[in-house]
Amino acid sequence: MLISSTHQSLDFSPSQGGPVLMLVIYKPCSCSHTLESRLIPLMNYGLKAMSMGFLIPPENAIVWRGLMVMKALQQLLHEVEWGGIDVLVIDMPPGTGDTQLTIAQQIYLDGVAIVSTPQDIALIDAVRGINMFKKVDVPVSPPSGMSHG
What we know:
This protein has two domains: 92 residues, no CATH class; 56 residues. The protein is of the alpha/beta class. It has five helices and seven strands. Helix 3 packs parallel to helix 4.
């Protein structure tokens, strides 16, 4: 999910749509386009957002591999009418795969923040993510945890 605003943050989800944020902050609707066929992000609370979840019916699963995911990522990064933004927040699934590597190679990153649940397997993924971003010279903030309490 991508969210954007001047002096706010931009959050972008190349995964299956960041469903919690979509339901809480953004009402489902069809996205519109500019005359140049660029997607217009949804806006609420002064934040712009774009997600693959906004572009498909909520009951549909996104069953994509490599090249299709990369094409969607390219569209969300480069074919959305963001306007001027100060901060881009990209909400990605855990891992060290094509999505994370493409983000690190396609756009300049000031840094990444790793958020994890406290389960051992989630922490293993978080450490791998930290090490991957360090290998591609992207600064990593100390990990932060989330819990269901």
